[in-house]
Design brief:
- This protein is α+β, with helices and mostly antiparallel strands.
- The protein has two domains: about 150 residues, Jelly Rolls (Sandwich); about 100 residues, Arc Repressor Mutant, subunit A (Orthogonal Bundle), CATH 1.10.10.
- Helices cover about 45% and strands about 15% of the residues.
- It is built from eleven helices and nine strands.
- A five-stranded antiparallel beta sheet has the order 1-8-3-6-9.
- The longest helix is centred in the C-terminal third of the chain and has 20 residues.
- The radius of gyration is 21 Å and the shape is globular.
- It starts with 10 loop residues before the first strand and ends with a helix.
- The N terminus is likely disordered.
- It comes from Mucilaginibacter pineti.
- Keywords: DNA-binding, Transcription, Transcription regulation.
- GO terms for molecular function: DNA-binding transcription factor activity; sequence-specific DNA binding.
- Pfam families: ExsA_N, HTH_18.
- This is AraC-type DNA-binding protein.
Length: about 270
């Protein structure tokens, strides 16, 4: 597959609040700042900073500027493109030690120079002209590997996620709003094996457990941390505030706003 078939997302004003990362992503912040969270650590990038986000991970992104303008440039590297690049350049896999989701890149002037070079090759929507996609994808990859040869161990490692501790993984990542098959894949299991192991460990189906776990966390945040439903429902993996309130009432017998009022009166 050529880079032209990857459908690159060159620049966009908004960034998805939560996502599964299917491919390695180069992220460069051109304006504003963004904070990423992978279930273990938080990472912040400001204007002019950049990193690699590795594939097969979960991540949340928050625009730190609120309603202020935010811009980024990203390059998404699919496996087929990387395999072709590796074969063409006869590159070997070297060991890559970092386990971080957001991988720091050693600062080099080659990268901001490369970012500036993109402007003549982009259209009004910020997409790279198709005739230059392959060239620019390869150019950035060469810069990254020349700057940090050990990154070959990240880009050219095509292994699947290994089987890991399901209970530990789910308790750490239940807030991420992704499909059940994604959770299965990331724990190194088929969907059927994941459901079977999940039932053994939690005595519940994944969907039921996730909703209960998220709602229990919501109750804690509202009752103990004075959070508002509107502040937390997205962070807890719910897509709709009204659905969150309905599910909350079904479990606890009151809406989030009623719990907040109850706590307010009790503290007087």
């Amino acid at each position: 597959m050529s880079a032209a078939e990857i459908k690159p997302c060159f620049t966009e004003p908004k960034i998805s609040p939560e996502q599964f990362i299917p491919d390695h992503v180069f992220l460069y912040v051109t304006k504003g700042s963004v904070t990423g969270y992978d279930g273990n650590k938080s990472y912040t990038l400001t204007t002019g900073e950049y990193c690699l986000v590795r594939k097969n991970r979960l991540a949340k992104y928050n625009n730190d500027n609120g309603d202020a303008e935010f811009e980024r440039i990203i390059f998404c590297y699919e496996e087929e493109f990387l395999r072709h690049f590796q074969e063409k350049n006869k590159l070997k896999i070297v060991k890559f030690d970092s386990a971080d989701t957001f991988v720091k890149i050693t600062p080099t002037e080659l990268i901001p120079d490369f970012i500036r070079s993109l402007k003549p090759y982009t259209n009004n929507s910020g997409k790279i002209d198709q005739a230059f996609e392959d060239v620019k994808y390869e150019e950035l990859l060469i810069i990254l590997l020349k700057n940090q040869p050990e990154l070959a161990g990240l880009f050219f490692n095509y292994g699947m996620p290994e089987k890991i501790n399901l209970e530990e993984f789910m308790n750490r990542n239940f807030k991420f709003n992704v499909r059940i098959d994604r959770f299965a894949y990331l724990t190194g299991r088929s969907l059927s094996a994941f459901k079977r192991d999940f039932k053994t460990i939690f005595n519940a189906t994944p969907n039921h457990w996730l909703v209960q776990k998220r709602l229990q966390e919501a109750h804690f945040l509202i009752a103990k941390k004075n959070k508002k439903a509107s502040e937390i429902y997205l962070d807890l993996g719910f897509e709709d505030l009204s659905h969150f309130s309905f599910a909350f009432k079904k479990l606890f017998g009151m809406r989030p706003t009623e719990l907040a009022q109850q706590k307010k009166y009790a503290s007087r």
